[in-house]
Design goal:
The protein has about 400 residues and is α+β, with helices and mostly antiparallel strands. It has 9 helices and 19 strands. The chain has 3 domains: about 70 residues, OB fold (Dihydrolipoamide Acetyltransferase, E2P); about 60 residues, Dihydrolipoamide Transferase (Irregular); about 230 residues, Chloramphenicol acetyltransferase-like domain (Chloramphenicol Acetyltransferase).
Length: about 400
Amino acid sequence: MISIKVPTVGESITEVTLLKWTKPEGAYVDRDEVIAELESEKATFEVNAEQAGTLHHKATEGDSILIGAILADIDETATKPAGEAPKPAPASAPTTPTTPPAPTSTAPVTSVPNNVKATPVAAAIIADKKIDTNQIKASGFAGKITKVDVLDALNNPGKIQFAGQDLFSRNVRPEKMSNLRKTISRRLVEAKNTTAMLTTFNEVDMTGIMQIRKQYKDKFKEAHGVNLGFMSFFAKACAIALTEWPSVNAFIDGDQLLYHDYADISIAVSTPRGLTVPVIRNVESLSMAGIEKKVIELAGKARDSKLTAEELTGGTFTITNGGVFGSLMSTPIINIPQSAILGMHKIQDRPMAVNGEVKILPMMYLALSYDHRIIDGRESVGFLVRVKELLENPALLLIAKDPVASLLEL
C-alpha cells in the first residue's frame, strides 16, 4: 500500500482544500494519472498517482488538509480490471474532424442559446415569444426546459425566479468559503488597513490605438498567431512610465524602499473561483506580440486553474481591466506589497472639446490607486499623465520619445 501525501506548495502555506476527486473510491488508476484537485490560498493544482493500483480516499471533498497529511492510499498489488475501456487520446494529439450526425428532430431553428437545453416544443415557444431563458425554471431531466416550464414563465411575466427556486422563496444557502476567497478577503482588508491608499483619475482618447488595431489586426494575427488586444498597449505604456517614475514601481520593506529596475506587471484575471493576478515578467523587454502571447497563456491557465505559485508572485505593478464587465469608473485596491495599480475601464463615445469644436471620441477613464507613503501626488499624477500621453500617441511606445523631438535632440 502506497500513501499519497499532500505536497508542499509554498513556504507559508500550511493547509489546502480538497476541491474534488477526479477518480472515485475503489477505482483503478494508472501511474501519473490525476486523482484529485487541491486548492491552496494562492492557486489550484493537481495530484497524480505515484503508482498504478486501486485508489482509496482518505479525505472528503471540501475538507481542509494539512501539508504532508495522507490524501489517499493506492494498493499497487491490485490487478487492472479486464476489459477496461482504453483512455482517450490526450488533448494535444491531432484529431480528425468529423461531420456531426444529422439531427433527429425536425424542430425549426430557434434563437435558444447553444448552452441551453430545451425540448423542441419549448424551444419553439421561447423563440416565438422571445423569452429570456434565464427567467425559466427548468424541471426536465438533466436541467432541460420543458413546455410546462415555458408556460409557467409566461404566466408570471416580470416575476424573477432565482435558479432552482419557486416564487416567494426565502431560501438561504450556506457555502464554505474557499482558501482562495479567504486569501483574497484577507489581502484586500490588509491593503486597506496598512497602506495610505489614494486614487487619482485621468482619461485617454483611444482613437489612435483603435485605428492601429483596425489597420493591423489581420496582419498581426497572421504574423504572430495572436490577436492584437488593448493590454499590450497598456502594459508597454506602463513599463515605459515605470522607468521614468521609479517610486511607482517600488515597495516599502520595513524602513527601506526597494526599487525595481524591471517591470514585472501583474494582470488581474477574474475566474469562477475568484480573482487571480498572474505576473508577466520583464514587460519592458517584451515585444507587443510577446506581451499578447503571455496574456493569453496566463489567462488560459487562470481559467483552467493551472497557474503555479511562481506565476502568481513577484509582480511590481498591477493592471486591472474592469471595462470588460462594463465598468465606467472604479477605485482599484492596491495588490500588496506593490505600491500602485492601474484600473482600465469601458471605452465609451463621449462629446469632447477639441480645438474649440465638439467631437465624438472613444474615451476611457483611467484610475491609479497608489500608496501615499511612498508615492507623492507629483509622482502619481506624472505617471498617469505619461501613460495617457503614450496611449494617445502610440508611436511613442517604440522609443518612448517623439520622433521629431529625437531628431532635433530636444
